[in-house]
Amino acid sequence: MRNDTDFRRASCGFGSSAVLTWNKKRNKIYVFIRYNVYNPLWYDIARLNLKTESGSEIVDLNWWKNTFGLNGKVIVVTGGASGIGLGCAEFLAKAGARVALWDINKEVGEMASREIGEDALFVECDVRSNEACENAARKTVAHFNSIWGVLNAAGVIRRKNTVELEEKDWDIVLDVGLKGTYLVSKHLIPELEKGGGGSIVNVGSGWGIKGGPKAVAYCAAKGGVVNMTRAMAIDHGAKNIRVNCVCPGDVDTPLLRDEARQLGYDLDKWLAESADRPIHRLGTPLDIGKAVYFFMSDLSPWVSGSIFVVDGGGTA
């Protein structure tokens, strides 16, 4: 076969590889894309918009977005007004999704929605409230007609140990981070079922896998989210709903900077210490958005119940 075929290799992005193949007998070029070691795909070159001047970029990004992307899919993002939630929502929107930003901060959330554009909707919602989540689900469905994905990213932190922590602080951390994940999922899973399935991504933390100092409530909440993810994957897989968890390390967000204030640390020193990990930098919301994209997209059709640590090697 090699006598009849010329092979050329290049990267096609997203960690995949592509091989351009010219079949001399048929006088036709094909592209072979291996995005999954068990499911290689062959595509007729006529279907692709190739950049032939450089072998570094073979597949047109619009083609990739249409094939593995999120075009037209509606994704609810809690905590979507700032931080990791907003960064993920922006990236998902660029990948073709329509996003509903649920957040308690109306002014900031509406501004974020406007900046994303016409494919974004802001819905004021306190995820601690069953009634608020039910109403937010109703408003989102009324606007978009359906929901395909959920990103549970709302969270708060209180940097205190068990003795120092007041009951009200315990309550708010657990209610936003853990109870909120439950309530949002409770009201949105039926909507995913109506559409034939979908994807839920819960935002955990490296401290949901291991402990951390002066963060007992946060560790409890995120540990609960991690194992809740596994339970949800078991319960809802039969309805074609995948549930996975992304566990970020220290990401440069308002929440991380507020931790320095709570602990009385110098901010510059705090950020430098937070970046001290094998990949020597802080994470960004975009780093987390790319991991979320993997779970939301068709790149992970048989992935559910996974716990994906994205922390620059911090927990290695």
How does the SSE layout of this entry go?
Blueprint lengths: L4 E7 L5 E7 L4 E7 L6 E4 L16 H8 L5 E5 L4 H12 L3 E6 L2 H11 L3 E5 L5 H15 L4 E4 L14 H28 L3 E6 L12 H21 L4 E8 L5 H10 L3 H8 L10 H12 L10 E4 L6
Parallel strand pairs: 5-6, 5-8, 6-7, 8-9, 9-10, 10-11
Antiparallel strand pairs: 1-2, 2-3, 3-4
Helix pairs in contact: 2-9, 4-5, 5-6
Description:
With 316 residues, the protein is of the alpha/beta class. The protein has two domains: 5-66; 69-310, NAD(P)-binding Rossmann-like Domain (Rossmann fold). Helices cover 40% and strands 20% of the residues. The chain contains nine helices and eleven strands. It has helices spanning 61-68, 83-94, 106-116, 130-144, 167-194, 216-236, 254-263, 267-274, 285-296, and strands at residues 5-11, 17-23, 28-34, 41-44, 74-78, 98-103, 120-124, 149-152, 198-203, 241-248, 307-310. Strands 7-6-5-8-9-10-11 form a seven-stranded parallel sheet, sandwiched between helices. It has a four-stranded antiparallel sheet with strand order 1-2-3-4, with no helix packed on it. Strand 5 (74-78), helix 2 and strand 6 (98-103) form a beta-alpha-beta unit. The longest helix is centred in the middle third of the chain and has 28 residues, at 167-194. The chain is globular and about 45 Å long. Residues 1-18 and 27-59 have low confidence and may be disordered.
